[in-house]
């Protein structure tokens, strides 16, 4: 089996609002470099939510590490911080009208999968994945073809102005193929 190496990008930052915008631009540039332009909006939204959570909730500091990893058919984005407390939001029961507390619900909505795991004694990693266009194309190709009803336009014969008697050929003027 031939395997292709994964691609990896790591950014360490303090999760402040001005830095979050910079990391979004880094993410966008990296995805363009990997020719994954269709994923930029969803990836940037998910990453923004994870970094905003670090900014609002992480203690003792706002330092974190963003990892962007391109696997064979998945893009994985993770944020590692130094706060061991795991998120407690229930993404299934997120209030649609709430002004806060919907970050992980949004991550769940835009991603294929997401999760959180402890990182040693002093930290955690929150991650999400997006299928790459290659993976989406493979999934589409593995589906059985669906028949769709296509209404064919009705074809009508063109009306002819004068009737032509096919038993009596008409004479056409003589033409010469020789120039001159």
Which key terms come to mind for this protein?
4 helices, five-stranded antiparallel β-sheet, 180 residues, alpha+beta
What's a concise summary of this model?
With 180 residues, this protein is of the alpha+beta class.
Roughly how many Å apart are the termini?
A: 72 Å
What is the number of beta strands?
5
Beta-strand content: 15-25%
Largest sheet: 5 strands, antiparallel
What can you tell me about this protein's structure?
With 180 residues, this protein is of the alpha+beta class. The protein contains four helices and five strands, in the order E-H-H-E-E-H-E-E-H. The protein has helices spanning 17-33, 40-57, 103-110, 133-142; strands at residues 7-14, 63-70, 74-81, 113-118, 124-131. Strands 1-2-3-5-4 form a five-stranded antiparallel sheet. A hairpin with a 3-residue loop joins strand 2 and strand 3. Helix 1 (17-33) runs antiparallel to helix 2 and helix 2 (40-57) runs antiparallel to helix 3 (103-110). The protein is elongated, with a radius of gyration of 30 Å. The model has no long low-confidence stretch (mean pLDDT 79).
List the helices and strands and how they pair.
Elements: E1 7-14, H1 17-33, H2 40-57, E2 63-70, E3 74-81, H3 103-110, E4 113-118, E5 124-131, H4 133-142
Antiparallel strand pairs: 1-2, 2-3, 3-5, 4-5
Helix pairs in contact: 1-2, 2-3
């Amino acid at each position: 089996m031939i395997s292709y190496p994964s691609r990896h990008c790591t950014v360490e930052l303090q999760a402040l609002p001005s830095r979050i915008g910079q990391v979004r631009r880094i993410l966008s540039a990296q995805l363009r470099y990997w020719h994954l332009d269709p994923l930029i909006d969803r990836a940037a939204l998910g990453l923004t939510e994870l970094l905003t959570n670090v900014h609002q909730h992480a203690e003792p500091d706002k330092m974190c590490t963003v990892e962007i990893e391109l696997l064979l058919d998945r893009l994985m984005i993770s944020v590692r911080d130094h706060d061991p407390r795991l998120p407690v939001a229930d993404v299934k029961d997120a209030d649609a009208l709430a002004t806060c507390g919907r970050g992980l619900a949004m991550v769940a909505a835009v991603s294929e999968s997401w999760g959180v795991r402890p990182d040693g004694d002093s930290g955690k990693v929150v991650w999400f994945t997006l299928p790459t266009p290659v993976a989406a194309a493979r999934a589409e190709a593995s589906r059985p073809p669906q028949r769709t009803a296509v209404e064919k336009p009705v074809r009508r014969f063109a009306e002819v102005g004068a009737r032509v008697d096919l038993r009596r050929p008409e004479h056409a003027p003589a033409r010469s193929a020789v120039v001159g």
